[in-house]
Amino acid sequence: MIALIASRDFLERTRDGRLYWAGGVVLVLLLVALAVGFGRQQEVRAEQKVAQALDYKDWLAQDKRHPHDAAHQGTHAFKPEAALAIVDPGINPYIGGTLWLQAHRQSEVKFRPAQDATGLQRFGDLSAGWILQVLGPLLVIVLGFNAFAGEREQGILRQTLSLGVSPLQLLWGKALALAASLGVLLAPAALLAGAAVAIGADPGEASHALLRFGAVALGYALYLAIFVFMVLGVSAASSTSRVAITVLLALWIANTVIAPRVMSELSRAVHPSPTKLEFTKELSAGLKTEADRVWQEAFGTTKRWSSDVPLNKWGLALQIDDNASYAVLDRYYGKLWDTYGQQQHMQELSGIVLPMLAVRAWSMGMAGTDFEHHRDFTTAAEQHRRVVQNLMSDDLVAKADPLGNQHFSYQAGPELWAKVPPFDYHAREPEWALLRNWPSLAVLAASFLLVLAFAWFAVTRQRAL
Fold it and tell me: Domain residue spans in the chain?
């Protein structure tokens, strides 16, 4: 009986044109987004690889110079484009992917693509993830808003129930029909996306990329299932199709337009993060306090780089100063990043009633384009910066300090520059991402169970019975 109901509903959707027109538009947009995303990914990856290679080549090609001058020149770290960025670019367009690794400071990421975008950027990028998050629910609404209400208006529902068909059989049959409609449209796009992800992955990482893609697909399947039962529940509880579509469009607007902005502001109010000026001021104060302490202990003065410190100890002073700053940088940046994480966690939890926030977090997290992956990259880049700084300082202590007043006449050569390894960063394993993002999937599952219970109740209590 459930299969008969599903086949009848599916056939009606093909006859009235909704499946072709509404679904066709979404499918075309998905294919265009995937094609654009794949082309952009290949271009960005090629640019990053060339830039990283040229930057390291420039480092090795330095003339003889004082190692501290070389440390100030520094190197650059380029964040590799994730294989699943073609599906969900996440925060990458807004946060950038290039770090300047220079002496004495932990740099911010530069060259954000959003800085060069127009005002339309605030509505999101045209990506497969954005289309599924925003237009996916709207497609479900268009296809299913009159599933129960329309049949009630036409008298078909009463006749069907009089034949002994139970309301729950109707619910599952209509849900199956909606799922089949979505599957016909989305399955081809999913296959193409999977192939693009496998092709675009780095050598040896295709299996990890496909595992991540499978996890992302699972999240979106659960997300659309939430709206399938929400649409059927509202349709069953509404007296007319007009009421049903009005309520459903209001819920769609709340979920996709209002909720992200409201929850973003609310999470910042509950877990406030400092402005850039405030953070820089606090960090500078923390660095000065720690520097004063270590300089007083080591040299008996808090005047950094003064005549109180003889030149035969300037290399040691640089080494001590940098080592003291590492713990301060870790503490302040760690606190800032933890605050961002708390804000994100709060938004994820609200996904139990606003599922777009939960699926957005899950999609970015498993795609490798969320803040946790960005934090991992910046941490790796900072560790590489410290490797460079420590090598330069060690060389100064060993070779420049013994020269005394001739400290700054010392010049290192290519043998020192070659000791610095090239920066090589790879995204973590899928298990690492799953461990940090499973709460989002759990919230989606809880939301699905709530909506399923609502649809179950609405169907068994509808007025037609």
Answer: 2-460
